[in-house]
Specification:
245 residues, mainly beta, 2 helices
Length: 245
């Protein structure tokens, strides 16, 4: 299976204080045929308005990964964490047996855009935990940088590069590919790949043909293939690629 999901096909939720694009069923969007992709339950592209945010609310048995694209996000949780997350920062929260948290925009005039991804954990009722890391651009420029990694062979290799830990057999790669540059990713038969383009334009090439992605588009791949990714526009292509079971 090689499926391109365009930006327009996502579900739009606009409440004024927050604008969200949901890739899978979430909140007021219910579609049983689009509930998840493997253990990936949610992939939300959120933009919070200044001085707005999610009030403290609970989660259980989820691995929650966030990546700040622009602006600043404030995270507060019941584990005693209070953290300002600048653009280029990834965070992982293991909800496990239960945790409460809030995500707000502390700025008075600048929106904050961030991705939030929910994964089912490999085991239930884990002890809650939190970690974050600011990722410098040179770490992911023209390469696949493993910003979050779990327990697969790929992930164990990724841990050598100080990726954040996640309690699931997934690896989330971050990349910013300059115009004309190419990267290869070899996917195994038993694995899935989810690629989401945040900015720029990206050309994907595999045995099924050529596919062009624009900002907000995603590719869902479930087959053994050597995936070639080429930045096809005048601006760099910035994307997140997830390798998952």
């Amino acid at each position: 299976m090689f499926k391109v999901v365009t930006s327009e096909e996502r579900h739009t939720s606009d409440r004024g204080w927050i604008h969200s694009e949901f890739s899978f069923s979430f909140a007021d969007y219910e579609d049983p045929s689009n509930a998840h992709f493997g253990c990936l339950l949610a992939h939300n592209d959120n933009t919070l308005m200044p001085q707005e945010g999610f009030k403290k609310h609970p989660h259980h048995n989820l691995e929650i990964v966030s990546y700040v694209i622009s602006g600043t996000l404030k995270h507060v949780d019941s584990m005693g964490t209070e953290q300002l997350l600048e653009a280029g920062t990834a965070q992982v929260m293991s909800a496990g047996t239960g945790v409460e948290h809030s995500e707000t925009n502390p700025s008075e005039d600048e929106p904050v855009r961030f991705l939030q991804m929910w994964f089912l954990p490999s085991h239930r009722e884990l002890k809650p935990s939190y970690a974050y890391r600011k990722i410098e651009e040179d770490a992911y420029l023209n390469r696949l940088y493993p910003m979050v990694s779990g327990t697969s062979d790929r992930a164990n290799e990724s841990l050598n590069e100080n990726g954040l830990r996640i309690a699931q057999d997934v690896t989330c790669y971050l990349s910013k590919l300059e115009s004309g540059k190419k990267l290869m990713f070899s996917q195994h038969e038993e694995r899935r790949t989810h690629l989401f383009l945040m900015n720029g334009h990206l050309e994907l090439q595999c045995s099924d043909g050529n596919f062009d992605l624009k900002p907000g588009d995603a590719a869902r791949i479930r087959k053994s293939c050597d995936l070639q990714m080429t930045s096809a526009g005048s601006e760099p292509a910035e994307f997140v690629l997830i390798d998952l079971p």
